[in-house]
Every structure is written in structure tokens, then in C-alpha cells.
């Protein structure tokens, strides 16, 4: 099992989760974070830290595409281990449907 960052992270990018991760398995894109599934140790401490509830266990149904996206993006995005401010529009986009169309595959800043 691993944890997966899902659609609600897009355009929010809260980073509360990265500070609690004991193995630094978060990677930063322009407008969301992902978890590298091969690095995640399944401890689950990140899940309750996400204000957008955008982290799910991969055992939840329907997450295959998100697991693949997390793996693919983690290979090219920089690692992030320090909390930073969420995107300015985070509160406006938290909980909105259809955010996948706004996904950017561009890398973020990382540490």
C-alpha cells in the first residue's frame, strides 16, 4: 500500500503534509504535489495533515490513474520537504470539481 495525492490538490498545493513525512517522498509540481509510491512507507501521517483531504490510500477504489500520475510526476519533479504557503487561490479551488483540466505537468521549485 502507498498513499496517493488526488485531484483536489490541484490549484491548492497545501504543503502541511511534507513536513510530517518521515521519508521525504513528496514531489512538487507547478500547481500540485505528488507522492512517490516507491518511496512511501505507508505510515499515513500525511493523510490527516492535508487541509484539502487530497491524500488517499491507494486501496481506495478508482485511484489507478492517480497512482500512475503520482509515479510519473515524482520521477521528474523536485523533492519538497519544507512547508510553504499554499497557492493564493487555494481556498477558492478547494473542493471544486473538474480540476484535472487545470493540472500542470511543469515542475515546481522544490527545496
Overview of this structure, please?
Strand 2 (26-28) and strand 3 form a beta hairpin. The termini are far apart. It is built from three helices and four strands. The model has no long low-confidence stretch (mean pLDDT 96). A two-stranded antiparallel sheet has the order 1-4. The chain has a two-stranded antiparallel sheet with strand order 2-3. The chain is α+β, with helices and mostly antiparallel strands.
Quick tags:
111 residues; alpha+beta; two-stranded antiparallel ribbon; 4 strands; globular
Strand content: 5-15%
- Trace the largest sheet across and list its strands: 1-4
Helical content stands at 10-25%
Number of strand segments: 4
**Low-pLDDT sequence parts:** none
The radius of gyration computed from the alpha-carbon positions, rounded to a whole number of angstroms, is 12 Å
Cα(first) to Cα(last) distance is: 27 Å
Helix-strand pattern: EHEEEHH
The chain-level mean pLDDT equals 96
Shape: globular
Identify the quaternary structure here.
single chain
**Estimated structural class:** alpha+beta
How many H/I helices?
A: 3
The biggest sheet amounts to: 2 strands, antiparallel
Question: How do you describe this structure in short?
Answer:
The protein is of the alpha+beta class and 111 residues long. The protein has three helices and four strands, in the order E-H-E-E-E-H-H.
Give a topology summary:
Blueprint: E1 3-5, H1 16-20, E2 26-28, E3 33-35, E4 55-57, H2 64-74, H3 90-93
Amino acid at each position: 500500500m502507498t498513499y496517493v495525492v488526488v485531484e483536489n490538490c490541484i490549484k491548492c498545493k497545501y504543503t502541511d503534509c511534507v513536513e510530517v513525512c518521515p521519508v521525504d517522498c513528496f514531489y512538487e509540481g507547478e500547481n500540485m504535489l505528488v507522492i512517490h509510491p516507491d518511496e512511501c512507507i505507508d505510515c499515513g501521517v500525511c493523510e490527516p495533515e492535508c487541509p484539502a483531504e487530497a491524500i488517499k490510500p491507494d486501496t481506495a477504489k478508482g485511484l489507478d490513474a492517480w497512482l500512475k500520475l503520482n509515479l510519473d510526476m515524482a520521477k521528474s519533479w523536485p523533492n519538497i520537504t519544507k512547508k510553504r504557503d499554499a497557492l493564493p487561490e487555494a481556498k477558492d479551488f478547494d473542493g471544486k470539481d473538474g480540476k484535472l483540466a487545470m493540472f500542470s505537468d511543469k515542475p515546481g521549485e522544490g527545496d
